[in-house]
Specification:
The chain has 5 helices and 10 strands, in the order E-H-E-E-H-E-E-E-H-E-E-E-H-H-E. The C terminus is likely disordered. The protein has 2 domains: 103 residues, Pseudouridine synthase I, catalytic domain, N-terminal subdomain (Alpha-Beta Plaits, 2-Layer Sandwich); 132 residues, Alpha-Beta Plaits (2-Layer Sandwich). By secondary structure, the protein is of the alpha+beta class. Strands 1, 2, 3, 4, 5, 6, 7, 8, 9 and 10 form a 10-stranded mixed sheet that branches. The protein is globular, with a radius of gyration of 19 Å. The relative contact order is 0.19.
Length: 255
């Protein structure tokens, strides 16, 4: 028996989020079903976070105990042989028993894509939010910079536990042009439920000059924006999760 860390990529379109739910198709449930076909008998995998319905990932991190005797390379190949085409195991490694993908994480990076054209592009629409015109990049970056550092973000999301802290630290946040697209990157120690999508919505509306920058300031200082809308889930992707090297300092096996 060993403890494994595995990086997952998935297109979230067909799934009711990451977390397992009764009578719904989820990423967690699908991965656990694939593991069981390999002989896994665990109760549940652990994950770095719960992506919403329709949100994608390139770097979701999961962990699980498994009595697998064929090496990590064959584990990835065997798992992918039993997963649907919209979920893929990318890399696996044996890690110390104490490793937890959520509680040991230092930084999480999300990216959001916008694209601009009058009509829908079927090849991009599952992965980006279409707008008729581009928001003002300078206005959005000016407002986004206010979020750097440690703040109470209850005005932009909520904790999953009633008594949970709503303070989060943002290390990097910016918008960049990419042809006829704009890409938003945000890196923080953790994020509240719906926090990234609400931030994107507010910044986009601000960039379109439909909301004032004071909305962001009020959200950070008073914990209230009055905004309940979210950017569409399809434009959001969990890019990567970073961990301190110390959590992998023993029992490291990769082949």
């Amino acid at each position: 028996m060993a403890h494994y860390k595995l990086i997952l990529a998935y297109e979230g379109t067909a799934y009711a989020g990451f977390q397992r739910q009764a009578h719904k198709v989820t990423v967690q449930g699908t991965v656990e079903d694939a593991l069981r076909k390999l002989g896994w008998q665990g109760r549940a995998i652990m994950a770095s976070g719960r992506t919403d319905s329709g949100v994608h990932a390139l770097g979701q991190v999961i962990s699980f105990n498994f009595d697998w005797k064929h090496g990590t390379t064959k584990l990835v190949k065997a798992l992918n042989a039993n997963l649907p085409s919209d979920i893929s195991a990318q890399h696996a490694m044996e890690v110390p028993w104490a490793f937890h993908p959520r509680y040991d994480a230092l930084r999480r990076e999300y990216r959001y894509r916008l694209y601009f054209q009058p009509e829908r592009d079927p090849l991009r629409d599952a992965f980006a939010w279409r707008l008729n015109r581009a928001p003002n990049l300078s206005l959005m970056n000016e407002a986004a910079s206010l979020m750097l550092g440690s703040h109470d973000f209850r005005g932009f999301g909520r904790a999953l536990k009633e008594d949970g802290s709503t303070t989060r630290e943002i290390f990097e946040v910016d918008w960049k042009s990419a042809g006829d697209e704009q890409h938003f990157t945000i890196i923080g120690n953790a994020f509240l439920y719906h926090m990234v999508r609400r931030i994107v919505y507010v910044l986009v509306k601000l960039g379109l000059e439909e909301l004032p920058v004071e909305i962001v300031k009020k959200g950070l200082t008073e914990g209230e924006t009055g905004i309940v809308s979210l950017a569409p889930a399809r434009g959001l992707c969990l890019m990567q999760v970073e961990y301190p090297e110390s959590v992998f300092s023993e029992n490291l096996k990769v082949d």
